[in-house]
Amino acid sequence: MLLKSIAIAIAASVAGVLAAAPTASAAAPGVSIQGWGSGNCPQGMLCIWPNWNHPPQGPVETPSLTTNSEWTGSVQGFNFYNGTGRDAVISGFTFGSSIPFKSCAPAGGTGGDLYIPVNVTKVTWQLTPC
């Protein structure tokens, strides 16, 4: 009987620890996912804006990039909104340097900032979650 009581107590302790553990975040390292709106980003698109600006409705400035397909080029980026159904990989360099930058923008209407200004040179898409 004593062993049964100990086993129940251990099981309850483990369940309590698991219930209190924080859940994993879908955000990639180096990305801050926020709850702001899409701003002026067209529906079904990934938008990147050059400046830090995220009022509740989302950025209202003209995006430096609007795409829903593979893209290469060169634009300044800081904020993003991914209104597509796919996770976007944003690549480039930290602004004014040759230090590479790569981060994932989760699908499904999420907005975020890249923490630092970057020179975005490529957008690709991935099937696996960020």
From TrEMBL:
Entry keywords, A to Z: Signal
KW Signal (keyword) present: yes
Q: List the source organism.
A: Micromonospora saelicesensis
Question: This chain belongs to which protein, by name?
Answer: Peptidase inhibitor family I36
Q: According to the UniProt entry, where is the signal peptide?
A: 1-26
